[in-house]
Amino acid sequence: MDGHVITGAALANCLGIDNRTVFERAFAGADSFLPGSAFCDLPFATMLGILPGAAVEDKLLDCVVTRLAAAALASVRQLQPAVRAAVDRWGARRVAYVFASSTGGLEETERWLAPDPRLPAAGLRYSYADHGIDATSAAIARRLGVEGVCMALSTACSSSFKALASAIRLIDCGLADAAVVGSADSLCRTTIFGFHSLGLTAPTPTQPFARDRCGITLGEGSAYVLIERDVDVTRRHALARVAGIGAASDAFHHTTPHPEGIGGQLCMRQALDRAGMTPNEIDCVSAHGTGTRLNDAAEAFAVNRVFERRVPLTAIKSLTGHTLGSAGLTALILAVESLRRQEIPATLRCTPADDSLGVTVVDRPTPIRLRHVLVNAFGFGASNASVVVSQPGGA
Amino acid sequence: MTGTTIGSVRILGAAFFSTHHASAQDLLAGRERAFTPPSYGLLVGRARRFTSLLTQMHIEVCGALQSIAAEPPIAVFATCHGEIQTAEKLLAEFREGAMVSSARFALSVHNTASGLYSVAIGSNAPTTTVTGANAIAAGWLEASLTALEAQQTVLLSIADEPIPAALQGPSEVGAAAAFLLGVAPGAGRAAQLVVAPSIERGRTPSPPAKPSGPLPPDSLRLSIESPDINPLQVLARAVDAVTRDEAATVPLGRIQPGATLELRFPQDARA
After folding, report:
1. Pair A208, A354 in one domain
2. Number of domains forming the structure of chain A
3. Which of B55, B128, B222 should we substitute to test contact with A (largest number of A Cβ atoms within 10 Å)?
4. Average pLDDT per run of 10 along chain B, which is 271 residues long?
């Protein structure tokens, strides 16, 4: 893999709708979850990470900006200056747009086929074009002024890392010099009820890797990065380097992880190999860390196998909720901010620790020398991906 | 012919399935048959329950190529609409006030077929799922670039099931095609992936500034796919071209504004 630098990053989630707010609140350990009833009527208890500004009331306006688009646009607005600079550098047709989501426009179809009784049905418009994963792609690409290759991927919770890998391939093969890699997922009742039906939602805020962990807190939001060839002109603007990406399958079960996290082990090792690094060079692992008993146990096993030491582990879903297709890039952007601050954000509610897991979870904001962070994104479909992100100078 | 060649791959095998056509050639000739479900033999036991027509068709065509692959390949799946029938059934459960079926929800993600496939064959190789209006072209692009990058065999499976009438989408026959892509010279049918017209390489003049104001009301509803691409015809033409020695060009769909990805088969390419 040739060098690739991240020259722009933007995210929005329940912590806030701009980078500054998200970073301040994340590194302050702000708890932003709301009861599920703030989103819809639920016959069970759960907490949700709801995107500010994409609240239920917005849907009453019958606006064409769907909840998915609202989530995406919160990041797109922030990324626009960096993308404009990339277009100036390379030309609009040399900047690709690769988008990822797990649910896509499902919420829009849900409003049409199974409207929420709390919302008026009259006045709602529906177009099947709003359902697809790429429902917003053409418009957002145009909004950003990019005219390069446009594609969309969906591999559940590893989606955004698969999109990042695809974007890098486009650059490496000469089809693009830069790529906007975006991801967004919006809350909808299908997702909330669906995860509950699988026994995966927690009634209380998620507690990744804790002894008493009992499930996921679902969230929504978006995360976008601008990635470019690592050359002199882009290096000056680099926030971080993508050092290596790995991907692998569990070959075990569609929704349940292999107990030893086989796919996770393979993709972490592959990411390290491609980065030309040994496990000892990684200063922190940003875990997938969903807070379910099986997922965390499998990931802890895999991390222990790969690292053979107590590498500091953080689980940002305790702050953002599980943003599904956006989860990977959300964690990656927070890792980039960690590299800048030289600080690991706290994993909320991770104590009392589950000693059987044998991992060291960072339970308070921790200043530390950070050069390389490995970020995991694992998902349904036995789909696993890892990314090593490094300081821009390669320190 | 103009265009920019992205790379060359060898197509080691191709398989086709349609609920209403016995073969790719029948589809191209307009010969229909009564609805025929896939047999999806790779899935056994519990894995067969609740699987959609989409997943069944993916598994059907992947299974047909199973004996050709020397080892579990990297797999790229492509679908324009994803598990649309499963999504509609989930929403029907909602409408009727029932709780969501856990099995149905678990199988509603776009990468259901790729996940079940990797589990069925015990593969740790990575899989991905390309989707959206230009999924056929983007799937070919992803699979070819992956094969060239990894220097490994890649399985490409493309499928879509009919969209439920309740969703007001375009009516379609269910169809699937799979291609096993290799990079080693000599084996299989050679094919070039070409972007037409030619893509720009290197620095180009800055374009005029784009409007940055609010999006017009319908702008979020636009697709990048060109309406003249018929997905069924594209799949059938690609499979048909693999089986012939003749030169052929198969437009796969738009890959960026104003540029189409094509699969070009030279006449004398068969090994």
Report:
1. no
2. 2
3. B128
4. 88 96 96 92 80 96 91 95 93 84 93 95 96 96 97 96 81 88 91 83 42 37 50 93 92 93 80 45
